[in-house]
Recover the amino acids of this structure.
């Protein structure tokens, strides 16, 4: 039995690099597509937001001569590239998927509206929302929270390269303690860096639970969808 009917899946752009260090690793991309299909085949409606850090990160561009607005717009385009790649991979394994863009980019993708996204989800399509929020100064984490709330998803699943939330960086501190569950207020209190505060506060204020898990271990997405406690769940 699956735990959720409709989920928002946030994927890291950096994870798509695999061992390449830049761009898209085709094996990682197809692994993601197969995991997503497995969950879709269990009857779960899936909306996806993917970052663009494997191609360009707007904030880092401000240190290289770009103004923040232009840098963020370049980052938005990077998310579109990743979204198109993921959509193509999903379609290649006989699963319906669509890219909707937060800014008008026809014919690359249809312009995002809640009604259109919900219509596609209910028709059995995977919906990938590209372009962030469509505005500078907002991260794809914030876009994920916004779309998750707007589309009335039951949970936001944040797929990362680590297996949950720790009280310290587990890559730097081998004694770091992992949380199985934690409240939003406790995250604030401990000043844990899960996502940007705008996104995190939106989830808290709209009671959208958050699950942080390791997406790079094949099969984990399906386990999370089944309610297995393999990551960290953040709730009120």
């Amino acid at each position: 039995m699956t735990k959720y009917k409709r989920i928002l899946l946030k994927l890291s752009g950096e994870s798509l690099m695999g061992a390449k260090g830049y761009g898209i690793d085709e094996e990682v991309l197809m692994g993601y597509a197969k995991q997503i299909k497995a969950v879709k085949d269990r009857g779960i409606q899936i909306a996806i937001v993917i970052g663009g850090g494997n191609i360009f990160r707007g904030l880092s561009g401000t240190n290289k001569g770009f103004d923040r607005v232009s840098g963020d717009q370049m980052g938005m385009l990077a998310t579109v590239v990743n979204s198109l790649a993921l959509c193509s991979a999903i379609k290649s394994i006989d699963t319906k998927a669509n890219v909707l863009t937060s800014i008008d980019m026809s014919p690359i993708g249809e312009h995002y509206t809640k009604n259109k996204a919900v219509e596609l989800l209910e028709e059995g399509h995977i919906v990938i929302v590209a372009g962030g929020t469509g505005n500078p100064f907002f991260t794809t984490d914030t876009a994920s929270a916004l779309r998750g709330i707007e589309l009335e998803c039951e949970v936001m699943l944040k797929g990362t390269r680590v297996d949950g939330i720790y009280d310290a960086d587990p890559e730097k501190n081998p004694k770091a303690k992992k949380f199985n569950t934690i409240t939003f207020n406790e995250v604030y209190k401990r000043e844990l860096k899960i996502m940007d505060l705008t996104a995190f506060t939106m989830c808290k204020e709209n009671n959208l639970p958050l699950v942080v898990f390791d997406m790079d271990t094949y099969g984990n997405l399906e386990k999370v969808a089944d309610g297995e406690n393999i990551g960290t769940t953040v709730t009120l």
Remarks:
- Residues 161 and 216 are 6 Å apart (CA to CA).
